UniProtKB/TrEMBL annotation:
GO cellular component, one term: cell outer membrane
Ranges where the RagB/SusD domain occurs: 320-587
Domain SusD-like N-terminal residue range list: 59-206
Similarity comment: family membership: Belongs to the SusD family.
Full protein name: Starch-binding associating with outer membrane
InterPro entries per UniProt: SusD-like_N, SusD_RagB_dom, TPR-like_helical_dom_sf
Pfam families: SusD-like_3, SusD_RagB
Superkingdom of this protein's organism: Bacteria
Principal subcellular localization: membrane
Subcellular location: Cell outer membrane
Amino acid sequence: MNKKLVYVVVVLVAASGCSDLFEPAIRNNRDLSDIHDEPKYAAGLLYNGYTRLPTNGWSFSDMATDNAVSNDEANAYYTVATGQWASNNNPLNQWTNSLAAIQYLNVMLREVDMVKFSDDPVINQLFVERTKGEAYGLRALFMYHLLQAHGGDANGELLGVPIVLEPEDPSSDFNQPRATFEACMQQLYSDVETALGLLPHDYEDVSNVSAIPAKYTSLGIGISEYNRVFGQVMRLRLSGRILRAVRAQAALLAASPAFSHGNTTTWADAANYAAEVIDLNGGITGLAPNGVTWYDNRNEIDGLGSGVNPREILWRTNIEGTSSTLEAQHFPPTLYGAGLLNPTQNLVDAFPMANGYPITAEQAQYNDNTPYANRDPRLQQFIIVNGSTAGANNTAIYTAVDGGTNDGLNRVETSTRTGYYMRKLLRGDVNLNPTSVNAQRHIKPHIRYTEIYLIYAEAANEAWGPTATGGNNYSAYDVIKAIRQRAGIGLDNGDAYLESVKADQAAMRELIRNERRLELCFEGFRFWDLRRWKANLTETAKGDHIENGNHRIIDVEDRVYRDFMIYGPIPYSEILKFSALRQNNGW
């Protein structure tokens, strides 16, 4: 083990705004043994895992799918979508980041028993157990991201990544083959189970000894001691509830068409894992009523206490303070934004009518001349269309080519290429006017509850059909009905379209996939969903050319993918260095 590694951790954490974690200040390279007597120093190994989470920031990989395009030709996802994705040009690479995180976590697991967190040996053991639980859980989470980004077929065998369970040092043999996808999934499940035995469901203060697990009361642990280690001060750390959600995410990936061959995880497994989380959230009734607009529920976000989650959010990043960066990237030009992400006509057409029918259905009564009338309310909650108002002053946004402003189609570099701008994720009360800039707090989820409900719906439908429960308290149909009711769909007709497909597994599959597309748009899911479904990757991105009040659908950007690109590549540099690594087919 290179003893400079700990110093690297310190630098990384300090760069992430956590420089006050270490006492005394680190001025020189430290020996690894120093962590045994300096718990805050040791914590840097664990914190490195948290700072490397891929979900710490937005990826906007929807711009490489049929959901959106970028108005910046230098954007990494623009290059991916237009034929420049390669094993040596991969902005979706998780190999280096996640394997580095696992290395730090493995060091933590090796050293943690020797770290002195407290002079009291019993309390010290609690700190050790919690730290181990977090490390095992984070290792499982990084395995999931590695499998999502790099798992794939190599000459007929479904492979994952090398399984590394011990710290590597300069004498290690780094030339290790990729384990099978199945072996990686089993290691992930094992790490989750180990972590669940060490972590609480949630980090909350207890006020009664009866709420403390028996294994701790038998050691003489009281309320104050328990709260010190497992109380609310630890919120936002990995918990048992969060790990159950991670297991459901990984199981959904493994059960999906692209990964299900040579893999023992079933749709029923994925559904049941998701049901565990849903049950902890109160079942169907636990779905947050304001969950559609979670990103702009202003009073809720502004009033959040330390570590507290809104009802829609299962796990989130820390709220740093006020910011206007996201809006500066994505607001239309007249709101002083760069208009970076442009939703496609393809996505707009995926929103049903308010009566629940797809716009192609006769019962929809869709009118090409008034395409935004009587639509799913989520359309204008997520997307700025021609004539929408947006921003702190409710400014009218005209995307028509003859609309008279730079918001119009292809007017300037920051204008939309599709006739649409993104509204979702943005705070509508941010003002970017240079004379009166007004920043706001933002919330960034790692996991939203709606995602878990959608995992259940997809997996339950595949496992048991639309209306069967598989022994749980709800069906795929029940979940989708609740999600659509919350969105304001079919309120006047009992959602007749949903009722018409609830006996048809294939039709329900398409509806569930579409609801997932809408509810999770712009959050970094579509790129991976299309691939795990083995769906069409090359649907041309389309837009709406509006002139003289007339709408004309236009082709905006071809999607250039080959069939093998349902799987991502192993980095070319790694293939060059290590002969034991096998590349996924085609790369």
